Amino acid sequence: MTGPVPADGGRGAGAPGSLLEHRPALRADVLLSPPLLNGPATVHLVKDPVSGAAFEIGPKEHFLVSRLDGRRSLAEIGAAYGAAFGRRLDERNWQQLLALLGSRRLLAGGPAPAAPERSAQPWEGTLLRGRVRLVADADAATARLHRWLRPVLHPVPMALLLAVCLGMEGLLTARAGRLVEDLVWVFGQPAALLGVATLLWLSTALHEFAHGIAARHTGGTVGEIGLRWRLPVAIMYCRVDNYRYLPRRRDQAAVAGAGAFANLLFLLPFCGWWLLLPAADPTARTLSVLLLLGSAQALVNLVPLPPMDGYALLGHALRVTRLAPAGAAYARLRMRDRTAAAAYPARARRIYLGYTVGSAVLVLLLLAAAVTGGWYAVTR
Question: Whole-model pTM?
C-alpha cells in the first residue's frame, strides 16, 4: 500500500459540503499492529479478521488510518497529520486512501467482507502426509478451557509455578550424570521407551493447547486445533490468530512462551514421583529419561532460531517481523555494498547484525553440545 501523496497546504479544508467535513470510521474489528521493523522500514500490519487478508502500511498511513474513528473529521485528522509530518492533505489524497480502504471493505457502513470458504471436510492430504481438524469451533473450545483455568492465570500463581519449574531444572542439572546414564539404559528397554515417547507426545499436545489458552487470556483468538502428520510422525497443532496485533509485548511473549512453560509444568508431578523412588528402581530410571527429554523439549523450543517459539519471543521483544530473513538479507548487503547497508537505520543495523552473528554462534554451540553429549553417552 502506498502512502497518500503530500499536497500543498490543504486548500479548501473544512469548506461547506467538502469531503474534508466527513467523519469516516474504520470497521471496529479491523486489527492494527504496533510498529514493526521490516528490513530498513518501519511498518504496521493491518488485518481484516473476517476475510483473513492482511497487508503492511507505513507510519504515516497508520497515523491516518488509526484516527478514522467516526468522531474526527478528515479536516481535523489532516491538521494533526500536518502538525506531525509538516504537510497537510487535500481531498484528492483522502480520496485515494478512502478508495483503497473501501476496496478492501475496511470502512464501517460499507459492503460486508466475504469470509473465506471453509472446507466441509475436516481433513486434507493423504495417508502419508496431511492434517485433520479435531475441533469444530477451536475458539469456543479454548474459551471454555480458559474459563476453567482463569483462577491460576494471574501473575502471582504464574510466578510461583515458574519458580518451581526453574528449581526443578536446577535439580535436574545437578544430577545430569545420572540422567544421561538412565538415557543410555532405556534404549535397551522397549516398554519403558514406548512409555516415555507416549508421555512426550502428550506433552506436545499440551504445549499446543497452552498457546491457545494464553491467546484467549491476552485477547487473541484460536483459528484451528487439529492433528498434522507426516508419517511416521504425527503431532497436534493449534493455530493462534491475531496475537501479533496485541498492543503489549508481554502479552505476545506470553502466547509465544506458553507452550514451553506448559511442557515444564507437565513434568512437575513426574519429578516429585522420581524424587521418592530409589535411584536403581526401573520406574525411577524411566522417569529420569522423561525428565531429561521433556526438559530438552521445553528448552529447545526457547532457542531463538526459526521455527522455534524462542524465535517468535525474540521477534516480539524487539518488535521485528521476519527477523531471520531480514537479518540474512542485511548481512549479504553489508558484504556486497557497505554504503547501501549504511542506509539502514542504526537500530536495524544493530539488530540484524547482532542476530546474524549471534544465531551463527548459537548453531555452532548447539552442534558442539550435541557432539559432546553423544560422546559422553557412548563412553559412559
Answer: 0.86
At 268, is the secondary structure helix, strand, or coil? helix
Amino acid at 189: Q
Amino acid in the structure at residue 259:
G
Q: Is the pLDDT reported for residue 10 higher than 70?
A: no
Instruction: Give the separation between CA 181 and CA 306, rounded to whole angstroms.
Output: 31
Q: What Cα–Cα distance (Å) separates residue 91 from each residue in 74, 94, 309?
A: 9, 5, 46
Read out DSSP for 125-187? Answer: E-SSEEEEE--S-HHHHHHHHHHHHGGG-SHHHHHHHHHHHHHHHHHHHHTHHHHHHHHHHHT
Distance CA 244, CA 33 (A): 7
Q: Helix, strand or coil for residue 173?
A: helix
Q: Distance (Å, rounded) from C-alpha 268 to C-alpha 251?
A: 25
Mean local confidence (pLDDT), 179-189: 93
Is-contact 34 46, C-beta < 8 A? no
Q: Which three cell numbers stand for residue 137?
A: 469451533
- Angle at the Cα of 221 (from 216 to 223), degrees rounded to 5? 130
Backbone angles phi, psi at 38, to 5 degrees: -135, 100
Mind spelling out the 3-state secondary structure of 87-132? CCCCHHHHHHHHHHHHHCCCECCCCCCCCCCCCCCCEEECCCEEEE
- Whether 249 has a pLDDT exceeding 50, the answer reads yes
Whether residue 14 is predicted with pLDDT greater than 50 in this model: the reply is: no
Is the Cβ–Cβ distance between 327 and 358 less than 8 Å?
Answer: no
Q: At what angle do helices 176-186 and 282-301 cross, to 10 degrees?
A: 110
Place of cell 516480539: 316
